[in-house]
Specification:
By secondary structure, the chain is mainly α. The chain is 75% helix and 0% strand. The protein has a single domain, classed as Orthogonal Bundle (Hydantoin permease).
């Protein structure tokens, strides 16, 4: 029995014939990794935790933990030629690995349910900005966001996202996912560069660049290291079977090592430019930077409202956010869809339709919990939205990441062969996967759930 076959599934490549082209795969993987994390989290945590010093730390985490796991996920996917659960089983023939993989599938399904809600907000803001409606009726952008989020429109936009993602996925790997990313990701870079040039030429832009990049090694501490590590993980879309599932569509001849480097660099570059768009804009108008919702939907609209052609730059910015969110959302939805196709023998179209519909229903309470009718329902002090986020990002994703390291390092003996690594690089990869990554993931996990503090 070779490493790529099991008794039950003797020809894995035939059991899963869908394929990306080489460039299509890199773009789709960059599309998955470049998401809201790059746009509204990374710039802020960088600015807050020491600028260029934090950037350096983030790069170290990316290299020590992110890239080795990214390579491992893609290698398992291509070796096993299945979804996040089936691949683990195909490569070992052991049922418990299928169960462990199933956790990642569940994680992706739950993330998708609320990621679609946020992606929906970006669509709403795109429309509002381009039509100029966002900038009418005063400049209380907090109030505007709250009144939007507490109504029923978020459910409508969430449905639009689900329909769109379901449609892309139903069209298949090359005809849907690849095409979607091939159009959007280069467009994304073009818009990002236009916005960067514009924001760097605003008066007082230098202050923003300083906030983002001025190195302050004094701000680096154990907490910033854990934050950098957690973000490296989230930013590369690891721990929930996403890169594993995409990896199962990669051609045998493609070099996974080069793909890993390209995806890592792409992720870093987009995050870096996002910072150069956001802070000069925010600082130029004397606004407070923040992260997440406050930055994207409150601070930036206030800045756009004050600049010439603000509706246009605002519109471009929200298109950017929407693309970032949608290309990531498609990759998340593909995880449970691939599972349903392999395990329940559903057609791609049926799987896409049923999973996106059920995922939509599961996400409705999240959509209604950010100030909406379910806003006051907060068991344990967290809204439904926050609970979904907590359980997936802080519990299921680290478990998924840990599982990938243990699988690649200890359970599956021929990962190096599939990854195309031997000698020095193989030894380095195994050292990181067997020892460094599991220990660091465990630390982040214990910190996130509050078992250790620093
Ligand atoms: N990497 C995405 C971001 O930075 O926003 C988020 C994400 C996408 C996480 C896909 C996990 C995933 F599977």
């Amino acid at each position: 029995m070779s490493n790529r076959t099991s008794k039950k599934n003797p020809d894995l490549s035939r059991s899963n014939p869908e394929r990306f082209t080489s460039a299509g795969f890199i773009l789709a993987a960059i599309g998955s990794s470049v998401g809201l994390g790059n746009m509204w989290k990374f710039p802020y945590i960088t600015g807050k935790h020491g600028g260029a010093a934090f950037f350096l730390l983030f790069m170290i985490c990316l290299i020590l933990v992110g890239l080795p796991i990214l390579l491992a996920e893609m290698t398992i996917g291509r070796g096993g030629r299945g979804d996040a659960a089936t691949s683990l089983y195909n490569l070992t023939g052991k049922k418990h690995w299928r169960l462990i993989g199933l956790l990642s599938v569940l994680c992706a399904f739950l993330i998708m349910s609320y990621y679609a809600v946020v992606a929906g907000w970006t669509l709403h803001y795109t429309v509002e900005s381009i039509t100029g409606a966002l900038f009418r009726g005063g400049d209380d952008y907090r109030g505007k966001f709250e009144s939007f989020a507490s109504g029923y429109w978020p459910v409508f936009w969430q449905a639009v996202v689900m329909l769109l993602c379901g449609w892309v996925i139903a069209k298949g790997v090359s005809g849907g996912i690849e095409k979607f990313n091939k159009i959007l990701i280069p467009g994304f870079l073009a818009i990002l560069l236009v916005l960067m040039v514009h924001s760097l030429t605003l008066p007082g832009a230098g202050q923003g660049v300083e906030f983002f990049l001025k190195p302050d090694f004094g701000k680096l501490d154990a907490e910033s290291a854990l934050i950098a590590l957690g973000h490296a993980f989230f930013s590369l879309s690891l721990g929930m079977g996403c890169m594993l599932t995409y990896g199962s569509y990669v051609e045998q001849k493609q070099s996974l090592g080069s793909a890993t480097l390209a995806i890592g660099l792409g992720d870093l570059l987009y995050a870096f430019i996002a910072g150069l768009v956001i802070f000069p804009t925010v600082f130029s108008f004397g606004l407070e930077p923040g992260e997440g919702v406050g930055l994207a939907f409150m601070a930036l609209p206030a800045a756009f409202s004050q600049m010439p052609f603000g509706f246009l730059f605002g519109g471009l910015f929200f298109v950017l956010l929407a693309i970032a969110a949608l290309t990531s959302a498609v990759s998340i939805l593909e995880v449970p869809v691939a599972y349903a196709m392999h395990n329940w023998k559903w057609s791609r179209k049926k799987a896409a339709a049923v999973i996106s519909s059920v995922c939509f229903l599961v996400g409705v309470p999240s959509a209604l919990s950010v100030g909406g009718v379910l806003g006051a329902f907060q068991p344990g002090g967290k809204t439904v939205f926050d609970w979904f986020d907590f359980v997936t990002s802080y519990v299921l994703m680290p478990i998924g990441g840990l599982a990938v390291t243990l699988f690649t390092g200890y359970a599956w003996k021929r990962a190096g062969e599939e990854a195309g690594l031997s000698g020095f690089w193989y030894k380095i990869w195994m050292f990181l996967i067997k020892i460094v990554a599991p220990i660091l993931i465990l630390l982040v996990f214990l910190y996130s759930v509050g078992i250790i503090s620093v």
